[in-house]
Amino acid sequence: MEIVSRRILLAGLAAPVVLRVAQATGVEIHVLSSGSFTAAYQRLAPEFERRTGHRLVSAFGASFGPAPDALPQRLARGEPADVVLALEDALEALAAAGHVDRASVTRLAETRVAFAVRAGTPRPDMSTVEALRAALLAAPSIAYSPSGSGRFYEGKLVQRLGIAEQVLPKSRRWFPDRIGAVVARGDAALGLQQISELLPVPGIEVIRIPEEVQKVSYASAALGSRAQQPEAARQLIAFLGSPEVAPLVAETGLDPIRR
To answer: What is the pTM of this model?
Structure first.
């Protein structure tokens, strides 16, 4: 699949979204990205730079939360951002704070959450809602992030399962650590995060949860409200959401938006 996706990117397809002519003199595009789309972005960025002559200057952090590198904190400090990649509800909050242009918000892919266990340990059954409830009750410790997936876990998932009182006392919000890394080193028996954030982490296995209790969010893009390179930024957003790159985006655990 990796080879196929690479061939698709290098083929230079003639669809309107394809950036046909590299700029004689590229510009710097400042990008802030949260975890949901980061794996896809990092794999696509070199091809965008090759085609356009632009240079991407990237910084990364959580969609929500108090960590110094979280996107709201970076933008509040005035860090430059031509493009912001984050969960759509995070972009809505950033738009309300005046940091991104609400009218430019573009959905790139659906993103779902999953649990991780340390590789080589027993995989709990989470194939049904009842099995998921039993697995969380049995787990000795659970890690979750302060970002969108963590807000879903503590505010909705365990509430809907009716086990908040039993499960939240043994659950811990971790930052700035990646949840997959927390599980891989044995600091928690289970960890919940976006699938696209878990898949790149070595030493863990990912367990999907039933759709009935799944949190489907949108990994989206928006122009920064003080974007210095808005036209080049729009090129980048169009490229990241194009059908051409959808197979590679899907490899990172996301479900690309059909256009």
So the answer is: 0.83
